[in-house]
User: Which sequence fits this backbone?
């Protein structure tokens, strides 16, 4: 079950996770505090309530597909060459051109270091040996460069030949052994997507470091999906996505889509994603239970706008030791957004921060549609 903006009730979800109990404690009032972490995804087959009102369900564990890396052998680095002559029949098409467009050019290619007798004199005058290269592979960066020779190369001047040779000497050339060019495979390569998602995530959250998770794209996709400052329906949709690549692609879109956290009722601006601060070892979003048993998934930010405080600060049942909490509501519509936590001890930093309930913020999809209409 998950909360929905603009609704006081909860919606039934079709996908959930098993929970591993990490910590168990008992409060002074007799209630039990349980700290758990999600593990395996499952799909809800059916659910029912017994005579005591307890909800039961039949679930099926979802087997996760392991992330697959694009084989390195699919794109081989070309060896350095002293000269490169083009057939006169047809030009060489760039490897990033659609294979359908290259269908008529399958027989065209490059003859390297094999000049004919009639062309030996002209070729020796136009070829330039790249400096610092030999006939063996050199240690170059792993960036992707594609060599394409224009059809008008035979009419190029000597200066243009020297310029091209100098450029090629500095760039590793990639020979595609696969059907599509390398950039097409990187669009769905989990490890490439993990690096992109991690770079965007670091723009919002500097600590804790997620460098180790970049090597495990499946775990990184679940971590970002759980910690993104988005509404509960969006988070639930991320959980329901099958496939690491598809989940990471959607998270990258969300990280780029909107920089603002808005009220789920009136869409007033509350905070920016750059205002998110980590106040828990689990990340910027934590799940807390109040003394009445209500669960609140809370995003912590160091700055907020458009919120009005209600009542006096109190340390009773505070989720953050050494901080007193005050109820914070939206100044525009009056809906309860979260709390202001202010320190009661001098040595604690930050001196204050805000806790925003993720169930009370606007859906990113609604924000995108509103921006398109404007």
Assistant:
């Amino acid at each position: 079950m998950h909360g929905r903006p603009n609704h006081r009730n909860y919606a039934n979800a079709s996908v959930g996770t098993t929970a591993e109990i990490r910590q168990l404690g008992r409060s002074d009032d007799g209630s039990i505090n349980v700290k758990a972490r999600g593990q395996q995804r499952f799909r809800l087959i059916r659910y029912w309530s017994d005579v005591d009102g307890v909800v039961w369900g039949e679930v099926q564990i979802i087997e996760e597909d392991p992330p697959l890396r694009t084989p390195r052998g699919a794109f081989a680095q070309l060896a350095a060459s002293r000269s490169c002559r083009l057939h006169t029949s047809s030009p060489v098409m760039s490897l990033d051109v659609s294979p359908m467009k290259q269908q008529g050019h399958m027989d065209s290619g490059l003859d390297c270091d094999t000049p004919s007798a009639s062309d030996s004199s002209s070729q020796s005058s136009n070829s330039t040996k790249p400096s610092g290269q030999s006939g063996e592979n050199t240690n170059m960066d792993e960036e992707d460069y594609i060599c394409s020779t224009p059809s008008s190369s035979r009419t190029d001047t000597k200066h243009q030949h020297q310029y091209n040779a100098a450029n090629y000497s500095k760039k590793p050339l990639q020979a595609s052994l696969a059907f599509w060019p390398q950039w097409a495979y990187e669009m769905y390569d989990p490890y490439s997507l993990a690096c992109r998602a991690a770079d965007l995530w670091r723009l919002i959250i500097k600590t804790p470091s997620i460098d180790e998770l970049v090597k495990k794209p499946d775990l990184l996709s679940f971590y970002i999906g759980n910690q993104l400052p988005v509404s509960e329906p969006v988070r639930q949709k991320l959980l329901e996505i099958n496939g690491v690549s598809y989940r990471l692609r959607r998270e990258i879109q969300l990280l780029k889509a909107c920089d603002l956290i808005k009220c789920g009722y009136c869409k007033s601006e509350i905070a920016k994603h750059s205002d998110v601060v980590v106040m828990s070892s689990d990340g910027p979003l934590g799940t807390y239970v109040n003394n009445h048993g209500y669960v609140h998934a809370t995003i912590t930010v160091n700055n907020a706008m458009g919120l009005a405080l209600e009542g006096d600060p109190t340390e009773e049942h505070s989720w953050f030791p050494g901080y007193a909490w005050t109820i914070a509501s939206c100044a525009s519509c009056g809906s309860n957004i979260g709390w202001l936590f202010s320190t009661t001890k001098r040595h604690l930093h930050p001196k204050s921060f805000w806790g925003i309930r993720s169930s009370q913020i606007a859906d990113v999809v609604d924000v995108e549609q509103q921006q398109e209409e404007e």
